[in-house]
């Protein structure tokens, strides 16, 4: 609602633009419509004032930090529905703009202790300071008693890398201890896994999934700051307090009884108690042919688990394609943030202005731009605002597992998370660059804008697995996350990197991530115009982009595309 004045201003500037365009056509004496003239009104409608005003609304205290299953969620998803409706988009999920997602909220009693016995001395670790744990099982109490501890190295089963940490091992009922990241990172050996670039086998989510497949009772990851890419404080804060999770049909009973982390200090004590040196065993674990080591210790843990069932929603809107409406290009952004925390002194609202009111506002901006086209693109354009990203890619994970539009008919997913607020850039960073044929579309649009494309500058942090495009990749749908640039036209690279670092330290995931009228959104507008072209061209194409050879996502895409063409 508040954004109307911005759009009025925009309309008048558009009128001038349209007049100029007419004059240009008149002078050239050629009425033939090029892509450039066709897209101009749409591209010009993407404006900083609109983006700012929608971001400001979404990041206002009134929206309460857009927490899941809160008043803030209701305001947010209704705002998005109303905006999409006003723009003239159709509901994306049958008659509804919402895709409802059943979730549980688990809160573990912080009095829990992890006891480890049978070694040189009995150990007892404190929840939060020395270990964290959760159970995804929908149970009020989850217990592990005298479960044998086994060190399984990186806990990886990767046939394509000829690696199996669970080889000839039966861990049913046992508690596995695993290292974070993968042997490639540990050794920096480009011949092992992807070298310094983290593979999915390095992510904590994978470690838990694999331990559950192996039938382990419990799984603990040893925390180390560098390979995890964040300090213990992040583990401590994000793993304690209420945790939102999806519920599977079996009430998550196929998961381990307990999934958690131990601090490096606690792990040191555990290995010492087993008579082993952590540093030596870590080196052994990163060598081909490593064999798991029973620690001769027993672990016990009881998690008292308060469970609440709630519902949260993805918001989905669709602009039907004019030629092939049953084929799709998806723009996505997560609408959620951390809500509010009444236990805090001072500001209690996590406004999440950059993360990700900007990306959510961008969906509205792009939707408006597509509506300005005289003819809708051949394929349908989907605007998907997902929930629960901050809680572990819940909304995108649910959509990818319960797709409203079939994966095989989805040409691509373009994810936006935290837009650039630091002005125009010479470059654009694309997380996922080099993995799929979407590169070609992005490179072309970047070139036209006189910009270069960067791959993820810190692939060892596993960013590709940490935002909403990843559940789509797992389902074979080519997905990228373009995330602004790092080389400011005006101030250069050092300045930009310092700005990014300052944001990460001072505002990221804190109540201070607030809307700032001093932002320079012109760089974000450049990015959105570029992404508009990418999406438009994908929607005018007949090809279904695929993953590049050697990526783990290609097999699923190949199978999907083959099934459709039969
Ligand atoms: Zn985000």
Overview of the structural elements:
Helices cover 35% and strands 22% of the residues. With 566 residues, it is an alpha/beta fold. The strands form two sheets. It has a 17-stranded mixed sheet that branches. It has a two-stranded antiparallel sheet with strand order 7-8. The radius of gyration is 25 Å and the shape is globular. The protein starts with a helix and ends with a helix. The chain binds zinc ion (ZN).
The count of β-strands is 19
Bound molecules: zinc ion
Mean pLDDT: 93
The SS-based structural class is alpha/beta
Largest sheet: 17 strands, mixed
Shape: globular
Number of helices: 17
Instruction: Report the span from N to C terminus.
Output: 48 Å
- The percent range for helix content is 25-40%
Rg calculated over all Cα atoms = 25 Å
Strand content: 15-25%
Residue runs with pLDDT of under 50 for 5 or more positions: 1-29
Topology summary:
Blueprint: H1 4-28, H2 35-45, H3 48-58, H4 71-87, E1 90-91, E2 98-108, E3 113-117, E4 123-126, E5 131-134, E6 141-151, E7 157-158, E8 163-164, E9 175-179, H5 183-187, H6 204-213, E10 218-222, H7 225-228, H8 232-239, E11 243-246, E12 258-262, H9 264-273, H10 278-285, E13 293-319, E14 324-334, H11 353-372, E15 379-386, H12 394-401, E16 410-416, E17 427-431, H13 438-448, E18 452-455, H14 469-474, E19 479-482, H15 492-506, H16 522-540, H17 554-565
Helix pairs in contact: 1-2, 2-11, 3-11, 4-11, 11-16, 13-16
Bound molecules: zinc ion.
Zinc ion is lined by residues 334, 355-356, 389, 417-418.
């Amino acid at each position: 609602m508040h954004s109307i004045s911005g759009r009025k201003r925009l309309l008048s500037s558009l009128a001038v633009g349209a007049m100029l365009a007419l004059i240009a056509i008149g002078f050239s004496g050629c009425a033939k419509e090029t892509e450039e003239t066709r897209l101009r009104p749409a591209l010009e409608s993407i404006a900083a004032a609109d983006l700012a005003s929608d971001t400001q609304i979404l990041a206002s205290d009134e929206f309460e930090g857009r927490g899941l299953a809160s008043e803030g969620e209701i305001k947010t998803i209704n705002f998005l529905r109303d905006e999409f409706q006003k723009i003239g988009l159709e509901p994306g999920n049958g008659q509804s703009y919402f895709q409802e997602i059943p979730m549980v909220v688990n809160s573990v009693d912080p009095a829990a202790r992890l006891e480890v016995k049978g070694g040189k001395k009995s150990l007892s670790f404190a929840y939060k300071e020395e270990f964290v744990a959760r159970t995804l099982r929908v149970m009020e109490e989850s217990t592990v008693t005298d479960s044998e501890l086994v060190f399984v190295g990186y806990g990886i089963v990767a046939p394509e890398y000829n690696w199996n940490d669970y080889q000839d091992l039966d861990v049913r009922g046992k508690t596995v201890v695993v290292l974070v990241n993968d042997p490639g990172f540990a050794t920096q050996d480009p011949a092992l896994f992807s070298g310094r670039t983290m593979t999915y086998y390095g992510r904590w989510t994978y470690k838990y999934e694999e331990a559950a497949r192996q039938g382990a009772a419990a799984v603990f990851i040893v925390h180390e700051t560098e390979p995890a890419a964040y300090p213990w404080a992040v583990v401590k804060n994000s793993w304690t307090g209420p945790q939102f999770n999806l519920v599977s049909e079996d009430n998550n009973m196929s998961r381990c009884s307990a999934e958690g982390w131990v601090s490096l200090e606690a792990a040191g004590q555990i290995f010492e108690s087993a008579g082993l040196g952590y540093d030596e065993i870590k080196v052994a674990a990163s060598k081909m042919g490593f064999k798991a080591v029973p620690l001769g210790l027993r672990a016990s843990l009881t998690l008292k688990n308060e469970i609440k069932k709630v519902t949260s929603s993805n918001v989905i809107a669709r602009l039907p394609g004019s030629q092939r409406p049953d084929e799709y290009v998806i723009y996505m952004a997560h609408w959620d943030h951390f809500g509010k925390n009444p236990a805090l002194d001072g500001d209690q609202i996590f406004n999440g202005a950059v993360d990700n009111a900007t990306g959510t506002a961008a969906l509205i901006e792009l939707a408006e731009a597509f509506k300005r086209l005289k003819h809708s693109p051949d394929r349908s354009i989907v605007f998907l605002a997902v929930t629960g990203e901050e809680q572990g890619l819940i909304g995108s994970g649910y959509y990818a597992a319960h797709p409203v539009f079939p994966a095989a008919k989805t040409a691509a997913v373009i994810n936006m998370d935290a837009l650039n607020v630091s002005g125009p850039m010479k470059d654009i960073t694309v997380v996922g660059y080099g993995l799929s044929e979407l590169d070609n579309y992005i490179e072309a649009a970047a070139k036209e804008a006189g910009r270069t494309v960067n791959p993820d500058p810190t692939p060892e942090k596993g960013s590709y697995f940490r935002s909403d495009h990843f559940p789509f990749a797992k389902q074979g749908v080519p997905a990228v996350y373009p995330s602004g640039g790092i080389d400011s036209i005006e101030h250069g690279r050092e300045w930009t990197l310092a700005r990014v670092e300052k944001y990460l330290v001072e505002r990221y995931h804190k109540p201070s991530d607030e809307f700032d009228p001093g932002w320079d959104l012109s760089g974000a507008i450049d990015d959105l115009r570029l992404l508009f072209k990418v999406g438009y061209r994908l929607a005018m194409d007949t090809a279904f982009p695929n993953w590049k050879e050697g990526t783990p996502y290609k097999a699923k895409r190949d199978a999907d595309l083959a099934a459709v063409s039969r």
